[in-house]
Amino acid sequence: MNPTAVLIPGDGIGPEVSDAACRVLEAAGAGVNWERRLAGVAAIEAGHEEVLPTETVKALQEHGVALKGPCTTPIGEGFTSVNVALRKRLDLYGAVRPVRSMAGMTTRFSDPGVDLIVIRENTEGLYSGIENVITDGVVTSLKVVTEKASRRIARFAYHYAATRGRRKITVLHKANIMKKGDGLFIRCAREEFEQWKDQLEYEELIIDAGCMRIVQNPERFDMLLCENLYGDVISDLCAGFVGGLGLTPGANFGANDAAVFEAVHGSAPDIAGQNLANPLALIMSGVMMMRHLADTRGVAEYGNVADRVRDAYNACLVAGEKTRDLGGTLGTAEFADAVIARL
Ligand code: NAI
């Protein structure tokens, strides 16, 4: 039976890259019934009063799986982030962001290459959205850390590692300064690790020194476990190892196999509507979606679709068929055509 998934095109480059990703998946035989729903600026422009319309939330709750383009969040003022709202409303607490060196993409980190996964806690930390003006010129932004969320993201990370043949988790923190908040996060990570110590290795690094070590020897790292803000920053840092944001997919997982797949990059307003955006990160997120469907629905063919798409985009990169951000000449639509031609 064909799978149903929600498609949120997003705004900025979102509609272009999501159109490209859907075309590639369909050409590979995914046969997805897409339920298109709006969020963010696109929802407001279509006359909705909320950035996350009820019908979008309902569709996500009903189908449990979505492919999502990026959504703009105004800086400083205006509505709160639709991405943060969506992760909180659906309790998509675990972000998974794989970063891998790819053949055909030479960077200064290609030898010996990078293959790591960033696991980001998605629901709290400094993204609690609790900010107060104390008095004129003084504001506070509240960092919320709970034992519940810290334990479940640690369990999620260890389970993810163990079921995918990973070996080592590095927890990044700043518990020397935020002794209570980050202190609780690493205490939970340490305690939950007790149950996995026969299968996995564990280390803790203070995030500033950790960043230096990651940049010096990224190949030493396997999986990075981070609270919300650190995970956001580290994901983009790691994207730089392999060629940039055009190559880093992502997934947000919640309870009951709910999952929203989206690239790490944002809506890139500077290049929106010009057929310049690289759709590969969203195509790769679509591949992650097909693997998730294969695992959770027990349909091997979904995994075959994922393999076909992966082989096709790998072949494109090796042949130099790339978008401009990767040093190539192809536009968004032309790159999708090139992938389809190699399926
Ligand atoms: P961004 O990721 O949109 O862009 C950063 C730089 O990377 C820009 O120069 C852009 O042109 C380039 N870039 C990004 N994706 C690209 C692609 N696929 N192909 C080629 N070049 C690409 O980050 P920025 O500018 O900080 O954020 C723009 C907006 O996106 C903001 O409103 C932000 O809140 C939102 N955002 C949304 C996310 C989401 O929906 N999940 C994630 C990150 C940011």
Outline the secondary-structure elements.
Elements: E1 4-8, H1 14-27, E2 33-36, H2 41-45, H3 54-63, E3 65-68, H4 82-89, E4 94-100, E5 115-121, E6 131-135, E7 138-141, H5 147-163, E8 168-173, H6 181-193, E9 201-206, H7 207-216, E10 223-226, H8 228-242, E11 251-253, E12 259-262, H9 280-297, H10 300-318, H11 332-341
Parallel strand pairs: 1-2, 1-3, 3-12, 5-10, 8-9, 8-10
Antiparallel strand pairs: 4-5, 4-11, 6-7, 11-12
The site of 1,4-dihydronicotinamide adenine dinucleotide has 21 residues, from loops.
Q: Identify the bound ligands.
A: 1,4-dihydronicotinamide adenine dinucleotide
> What coarse outline follows from CA principal-axis ratios?
globular
The CATH architecture of the largest domain: 3-Layer(aba) Sandwich
What portion of residues is helical? 40-55%
CATH superfamily of the largest domain: Isopropylmalate Dehydrogenase
Distance between the termini: 22 Å
Strand share of the residues?
15-25%
Q: Structural class of the helices, strands and pairings?
A: alpha/beta
- Radius of gyration from the alpha-carbon trace, in angstroms: 20 Å
> How many helix segments?
11
Low-confidence stretches: none
